[in-house]
Amino acid sequence: LLAAIPSCLSQQRPTVQLEADPFVSPGSVVKIRCNVQGVPRPVTTWKENGQPLLATDRIAFEDHGEFHLLVISNVQQTDSHRKFECHARNENGGAMAVRSFAVVSDGLAGGVAGQSPTVDLQGPTHVPAGVAATLLCIVQ
């Protein structure tokens, strides 16, 4: 019965979605989660400004199957607005997503009066390679 299913139905181009706190405190640990899907299972790599990101005493990588973590320890002000890229590729193509965060003074990372900020990211969830996408990010 499985032989009757076209092989193209079992193939899936990779998709990538990143999750991370938009604001962090100096000295804290940041975990950027990269959710990856695709058939066959995509190979996932981390980059910064298009260059491979290497493990250091502060940067580590964790592979959990359908998601991958970039773990940055002892976050410093110089980590603010660095653009971390998660790339996924299989025989059907590739996908990538970029995430950054802001390092803010203690007390500000939790938002106003200790409340976490609300971030609403609006825009397309899938964009073909080579096509521009516009996202609206509303932070309250």
TrEMBL record:
GO terms for molecular function: cell-cell adhesion mediator activity. Gene3D superfamilies: Immunoglobulins. One of its GO terms (cellular component) is axon. Pfam families: I-set (PF07679). GO terms for biological process: axon guidance; dendrite self-avoidance; homophilic cell adhesion via plasma membrane adhesion molecules. It comes from the Eukaryota. Keywords: Disulfide bond, Immunoglobulin domain. The keyword Disulfide bond applies. The keyword Disulfide bond applies. InterPro entries: Ig-like_dom, Ig-like_dom_sf, Ig-like_fold, Ig_I-set. PROSITE patterns: IG_LIKE (PS50835). Residues 14-102 form the Ig-like domain. This is Muscle M-line assembly protein unc-89.
